[in-house]
Amino acid sequence: MASKESQRLRYLLVDAHSVIFAWPELRSMHQRRNVLARDELLKRLARYQDTSGYRVIAVFDGQGARHSESSEHENLQVFYSSTKGSADSIIERLVAKYASTHEMIVVTNDSLEQQTVSSFGGSAISVETFLEWINDAERLLSRQIRKLERTR
Q1: How far apart are CA 54 and CA 57, in angstroms?
Q2: pTM (2 d.p.)
Q3: Where do the structural domains in the chain lie, given as residue ranges?
């Protein structure tokens, strides 16, 4: 029988706009055409999910819908807040609901959001720390690919 700890899932909730504006490459894309930055972020998050063991959830501020929406993109769960809501409110609801049974880490540079997440039992990391995680994971993946290619 599996222990409760082994059943505990690991979630990484990403305040998507916070990441886009802190990541120079994505910020530049966003200035030209915001959909390009969003798609590139989702592609990078999907790769990170595939290599990290985290289930990644990207949360965007409102896209014009009256109600919060959820969709799938490259096996990621993606939430869009309503125009009256915010990404923060979605993140807070998810952490409040699931932090007692799952590891919930939120990526945001909003210090108030980091404190709120902690009060609900989750943890928070800065976007800069997360970018280091992504870069480390991509370097490791590249090394593994080169190693496999050499063995062929």
Answers
A1: 9
A2: 0.85
A3: 7-151
Select from 64, 34, 60 the least CA-distant residue to 45: 60
CATH architecture of the domain formed by 7-151? 3-Layer(aba) Sandwich (3.40)
pLDDT tens string, the chain, 152 residues long: the values are 445 555 789 999 999 999 999 999 999 999 999 899 999 999 999 999 998 999 999 999 876 554 444 555 668 999 998 888 899 999 999 999 999 999 999 999 999 999 999 999 999 999 999 999 999 998 988 888 898 888 87
Q: Among residues 96, 46, 94, 30, which one has the least CA distance to residue 68?
A: 94
Give the 3-state secondary structure of 69-109. Answer: EEEEECCEEEEECCCCCCHHHHHHHHHHHHCCCCEEEEECC
Residues 43, 45, 48, 50: what is their CA dihedral angle, to the nearest 10 degrees?
-70
By C-alpha distance, which of 55, 27, 50, 35 is closest to 127? 27
- At 111, give phi and psi (nearest 5°): -65, -35
Which among 68, 86, 67 has a CA at the least distance from the CA of 77?
68
